Structure formats: C-alpha cells, structure tokens
Amino acid sequence: QVAKKNISKMKRLAKQVPANCLHKYLLLKAEFDILKGRYAIGKKNYQKAIEFAKKEGFLHEHALACERAGLAFYSCNGAKEDPSLDTADLPGSKFLSEACILYKEWGAHAKVKQM
Asked: Which of 19, 25, 42, 53 is nearest to 92 (CA)?
C-alpha cells in the first residue's frame, strides 16, 4: 500500500513536471511491476525510464535505471508473463555494462568498482 501511494504521488508529479519526474515515475513503476511478476510491463517501463532519463540529461538517474533494469533481468532469468517477453534481446549484462559506463562518466568511481 505504501509503495502504491508513493508511486501515485510520483505519477502526479510526472504529469506536472515530466522533464524532471517522468523517468523517476517509470522507474518506480518498473520496479513494482517486476516485484508483482508483471515482467513484460516492467521491461517496457525500464526501457521508457532509461529513454527519458537519457533524453532529459539525468546521467546519474540514467545509470541507476540501467543498473536496476540489468539486475531485474538477471533476477527474472527468463521468467515470462507472456510469450512475447524475450530477455535475450536486452540481457541484464548489457544494462549493467551501460550503467558502469554512465556511473564512470558521472564520476562515481566507487560505484563502478562496487559493481
């Protein structure tokens, strides 16, 4: 319930200030979707969060979205909600590699080392 409430708040903010909040809302939604086993929807929301964070120039949040997507795809490891979900076309390692590049570019060297 708390998660749903906070996602709803972020959705309202995303409608008011999409340039600053839409990618955050989509990332929260993706995390919740994966948690609830809605892998196909989660995949799409991760991709949208990554796209919008990149578009708006939020380097650190672009990195975070890539990291979380990569970890989610590893944890799903082929779990499928429907036959159209194919994690092979967007493997977790691709997202994690991209996250490392972005974190390094942002200057978060300790994070890169931790990953």
From this structure: 42
